[in-house]
Amino acid sequence: MRPSYDRTQEDLGNIVELGHVNVQVPDQHSATLFYITGLGLTRDPYLMTGVTNMWVNVGRSQFHLPRGPAQVVAGRIGLVLPDLEAALHRLAAIRDDLADSRFGFREGDGFIDVTCPWGNQIRLHAPDMRFGRIVLGMPYVEINVPRGVDDGIIAFYREILNGPAEHFEDRESPGVRVLLAPDQYLIFRETDRPIPPYDGAHIQITLVNFSEPHRRLLERGLITEESDQHQYRFENVIDPRSGQVLVRFQHEVRSMCHPLFGRPLVNRNPAQTNTQFVPGYENLPWAMP
């Protein structure tokens, strides 16, 4: 008897990469303490190695941290780390150095909620079947939205970007989930709380069919930057039927021909120290075998 498979589970749609989350930071010193020392992530050793920008690797994705007035994602960024107990020790070790900032953390039921020095909310998870094979990575970015916009958001990603989008519910509030890459999602979470004005933070995604979504966005006047041959940007997520702006959150859109697409990222093992060094364990794989 032949085995039976659900082939639809392999469908990705037109969006194939969550490349990075970009938030400005006023202080590279505090950013290094938080992202590298505290979270245990890895500064990219090859690109943006100066003091005006810092690229930080987390599995297959990155944080981009250019210097400037602080930007805060109106929602939450989810990370998977291989060892939450070790993360707690690292975060405790930087508490005094970041005492004059908004930095803080608390343990939840199977996760750690962390606030960066400028107010970005990050939830740390241990590897779990919910996140597929990821043991180090960025499985989701959440954006808070008012109630009643979910159908329009789904229509936008399906009709404009050709991306899989669906309603979903979990232990928190309902929302919309957009598949960006295997086991990585953009989540729009409904809330009754006031949503702060948009301040310019953005995500970067990669499309297979690059030109057709560009044409649809251009027809609606939504393109905000024609970056280069391989990239453009838009900011407003609209209801395709009414034209109503539902969410403001910039998307940096790249093609698969972009020179940086699929670039292997270095991820260090933060448990390695000069006093407890074990040869051959410097690198940390982002996924389970």
CATH class: Alpha Beta
Broad shape: globular
Strands, total number? 16
* Distance, first to last CA: 28 Å
Task: Describe this entry's structure for a reader.
- An eight-stranded mixed β-sheet has the order 2-3-4-1-13-16-15-14. An eight-stranded mixed β-sheet has the order 6-7-8-5-9-12-11-10, with helices on one face.
- It is globular, with a radius of gyration of 19 Å.
- A hairpin with a 2-residue loop joins strand 14 (223-228) and strand 15.
- It has one domain (14-255): 2,3-Dihydroxybiphenyl 1,2-Dioxygenase, domain 1.
- The chain is an alpha+beta fold and 289 residues long.
- The model has no long low-confidence stretch (mean pLDDT 95).
- It has helices spanning 28-38, 84-93, 150-159, 211-219, and strands spanning 15-22, 42-43, 55-58, 61-64, 75-80, 104-107, 111-115, 121-125, 137-145, 165-168, 175-181, 184-190, 202-207, 223-228, 231-238, 245-255.
- It has four helices and 16 strands.
What's the SSE blueprint?
Layout: E1 15-22, H1 28-38, E2 42-43, E3 55-58, E4 61-64, E5 75-80, H2 84-93, E6 104-107, E7 111-115, E8 121-125, E9 137-145, H3 150-159, E10 165-168, E11 175-181, E12 184-190, E13 202-207, H4 211-219, E14 223-228, E15 231-238, E16 245-255
Parallel strand pairs: 1-4, 5-8, 9-12, 13-16
Antiparallel strand pairs: 1-13, 2-3, 3-4, 5-9, 6-7, 7-8, 10-11, 11-12, 14-15, 15-16
